[in-house]
Amino acid sequence: MTNTIDLAVIPGDGIGPEVIAEAVKVLKKATQNEDVRLVLSEYRLGAEHWLATGETLSDGTLAELRRHDAILFGAVGAAPGDTRIPSGLIEREMLLKLRFAMDHYVNLRPSKSYAGVPSPLADPGTIDFIVVREGTEGPYVGNGGALRVGTPHEIATEVSVNTAHGVERVVRDAFRRAADRPRRKVTLVHKHNVLVHAGHLWRRTVEAIAAEYPQVSHDYLHIDAATIFMTTDPARFDVIVTDNLFGDILTDLAGAVSGGIGLAASGNLNMDRTAPSMFEPVHGSAPDIAGQQKADPTAAILSAAMLLEHVGLPAAARRIEAAVEADIAARPQFSGTRTTSQVGDAIAAGVS
Length: 352
Ligand code: NAI
Ligand code: MG
What we know:
InterPro entries: ICDH/IPMDH, IsoCit/isopropylmalate_DH_CS, IsoPropMal-DH-like_dom, LeuB_actb. The chain is α/β, with parallel strands linked by helices.
């Protein structure tokens, strides 16, 4: 029986539509010989959509999105300095709202070194790790407030929320992933020497779950030390588990050391599958190069591969990854002269 995979596609702003067009091209190629029917529904959301309609993300759109099997997302956001859009509006009212509403509690960001991709590090070694970043708690939940704003006595709080339930489910996910990887190692990154309350909840949770996974080793790094090791010896990492804020920062660094923003893919996962998971390149809408066919679609294409893995088509995901790897190895000969769509064509053609 042919399965239907029903996807919502949100191209968004700037280079979003350009890179998503290529991801869709490759998705179609990778699934053409599988026993599946791909159904794609496009949603217009983002800064341009807000300017045109006033909608950030309505409850109606949210309900429609919920019915899909997964979401492929480009990027949203206006150019910095665009005064027509209140700063942070789209990030908070659209992107964060989506991640919270869909309970995307695992933000998964793989980092890998590819042959042919220069690293800013002189001697990075072989990078192959994943960051499992908590996606629904921490300091990003909007738990704070301000008093006496604009006066010398202004008070501002931004309180990090960490629940036993929230920490446990993401730590468990990290151990499960580590158990399936060759090196089977989890590194908790936090700052439990000063953030003692949240830090000790994370530490105790890791210890409790580690006991269930005797085949997986685990260690711990403070966030500041983790940034040192990520630049001096990124090859030491296998699976990193960390909170929302530390994960946000560490994954940008991870992207930088392992080949740059054009390659960094991510998944916002609801592993209980009570709502669709969402897959997106880590980069933003890149207004500086938008509309010029200069964007590298690889991060969006690798995000599409993660999507296929999540919806139960791991073989198709592997075929995309292999095609990306081959294309990246061939890149020096093109020296950056290909358009976004030519890169997409080449990767699609390379999918076996
Ligand atoms: P950005 O990631 O859009 O761009 C940073 C730099 O990287 C730019 O020079 C850009 O040209 C380059 N770049 C990004 N993606 C690229 C690609 N695929 N190929 C080649 N070069 C690429 O970050 P920026 O400039 O800070 O933000 C621009 C807008 O994107 C803002 O409105 C921001 O809020 C939004 N944004 C949205 C995200 C999302 O939708 N998840 C994530 C990050 C930023
Ligand atoms: Mg970030």
